[in-house]
Specification:
The protein is of the alpha+beta class. The protein is built from three helices and four strands; from the N terminus they run E-H-H-E-H-E-E. The chain is 28% helix and 27% strand.
């Protein structure tokens, strides 16, 4: 996300590294996103951890099942300025 201040939407489907990305991203990096959709291939426990991580960064997050696929969807109600003072 270098060089771009804010994204409206990001779909994350990187076959096995989704949890690492969410865990390693800073709150500031995550807040650059307005909404996120993650195709989920992990346990319910890891899903709960990912939901908690996104909520910590200011998102409303929930899991959905669509045609036997699980998704973690999250969005923020208001944009937060990410500019440095």
């Amino acid at each position: 996300m270098t060089g771009i201040e804010q994204f409206d939407f990001s779909k994350i489907d990187i076959e096995g590294a989704e949890t690492e990305i969410l865990a390693s991203a800073t709150d500031l990096q995550l807040r650059r996103l307005g909404a996120i959709s993650v195709e989920w291939h992990y346990s319910d426990e890891k899903l709960t951890q990912a939901e908690r991580r996104l909520r910590q960064a200011g998102f409303e997050a929930k899991a959905e099942v669509q045609q036997a696929l699980s998704y973690l969807k999250a969005s923020r109600q208001s944009a937060i300025s990410v500019s440095s003072p």
